[in-house]
């Protein structure tokens, strides 16, 4: 790969927590003029962290919803990993997956959010596009992942921790563009134009209708140069769920406690856990002394329940692996055949 000083390429890093819309945003930016992104790499979500071995992936630090709590995950220009050999290796590996005929190279990994300074040191011509999404959809969607199983308040803390780190790190960055997911889905064309100007390119002309496929395509198969659209329905679903938890859950004391506890911290980013959720009877106005006693018990109980779920999930996965090593292969072949027939029958 050419020396960075003479390299005409720009490197675009899309940053934001899991479930924040980074995948949608990265795919659309990848469709801008002269942009190239990772596609069909065979790794999870085509994320650059899985294509290299210079720095550990986020699962080395606890994975989704937890990696930000590990100080080792926060990489800066002072990292011991930033050796000339490692920098050259990282550029070489990623460059092999980008289109060599294009000069704007894009990479998307959620962990980029807390390693922007590291990436800028490795790629001096780096541009960072940082997306934030309301902590409720981010945390509640993350909680649904079987690989996560964290309590809701811990996911709130993780959101605040990661974006707090970025707020400090962006003081050292040369090129940063920030946006909210909610604003983006309301007016994507405006943001595509702004992002294109930010990275020095333009939005391509939309393909004519006669060039598009008639049959609906899954997101990964959207034709080149056609921008994907997002819907507010995804956020609205989680907002409705949160309102139900605050008002009707048998554990609403816990949910109201964490809503009050984190409200002021999220309000700094323009988000609320209380406003607009039609709290029946208003907030419980217990005094601070009682809250200070009961609240931590709520959180300990939520953490304990999440731990039990994680242990159960891991025991189940371990059991499956053990069975797989014991039973002969033809048994699994037979099981797969039966499941395939059942799926065809349902279809």
Account of the protein in words:
This protein has 347 residues and is an alpha/beta fold. The chain has 2 domains: 218 residues, P-loop containing nucleotide triphosphate hydrolases (Rossmann fold, 3-Layer(aba) Sandwich), CATH 3.40.50.300; 88 residues, no CATH class. It has a 5-stranded parallel sheet with strand order 2-3-1-4-5, sandwiched between helices. Strand 2, helix 2 and strand 3 form a beta-alpha-beta unit. Helix 4 crosses helix 8, helix 8 packs across helix 9 and helix 9 crosses helix 10. The radius of gyration is 23 Å and the shape is globular. About 2% of the residues have low confidence.
């Amino acid at each position: 790969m050419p020396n960075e000083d003479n390299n005409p390429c720009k490197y675009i890093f899309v940053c934001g927590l899991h479930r924040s819309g980074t995948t949608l945003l990265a795919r659309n930016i990848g469709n801008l003029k002269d942009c190239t992104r990772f596609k069909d790499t065979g790794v999870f979500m085509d994320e650059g962290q899985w294509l290299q071995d210079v720095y550990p992936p986020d699962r080395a630090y606890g994975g989704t919803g937890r990696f930000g709590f590990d100080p080792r995950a926060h990489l800066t220009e002072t990292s011991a990993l930033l050796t000339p050999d490692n920098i050259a290796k990282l550029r070489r590996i990623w460059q092999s997956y980008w289109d060599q005929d294009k000069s704007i190279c894009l990479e998307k990994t959620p962990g980029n959010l807390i390693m922007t300074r590291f990436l800028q040191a490795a790629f001096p011509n780096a541009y960072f596009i940082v997306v934030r999404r309301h902590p409720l959809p981010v945390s509640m969607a993350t909680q649904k992942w079987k690989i996560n199983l964290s309590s809701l308040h811990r996911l709130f803390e993780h959101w605040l921790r990661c974006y707090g780190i970025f707020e400090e790190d962006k003081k050292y960055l040369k090129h940063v563009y920030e946006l909210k997911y909610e604003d983006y889905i309301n007016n994507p064309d405006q943001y595509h134009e702004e992002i294109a100007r930010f990275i020095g390119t333009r939005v391509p002309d939309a393909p004519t209708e006669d060039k598009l496929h008639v049959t609906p395509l899954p997101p990964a198969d959207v034709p080149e140069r056609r921008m994907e659209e997002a819907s507010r329905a995804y956020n609205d679903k989680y907002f409705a769920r949160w309102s139900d938890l605050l008002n009707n859950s048998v554990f609403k004391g816990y949910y109201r406690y964490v809503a009050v506890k984190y409200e002021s911290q999220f309000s700094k980013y323009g988000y609320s856990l209380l406003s607009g959720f039609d709290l029946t009877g208003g907030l419980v106005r217990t005094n601070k002394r009682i809250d200070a006693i009961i609240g931590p018990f709520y959180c300990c109980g939520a953490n304990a329940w999440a731990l039990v779920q994680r242990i159960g999930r891991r025991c189940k996965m371990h059991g499956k692996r053990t069975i797989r090593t014991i039973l002969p292969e033809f048994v699994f072949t037979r099981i797969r055949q039966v499941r395939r027939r059942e799926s065809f029958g349902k279809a």
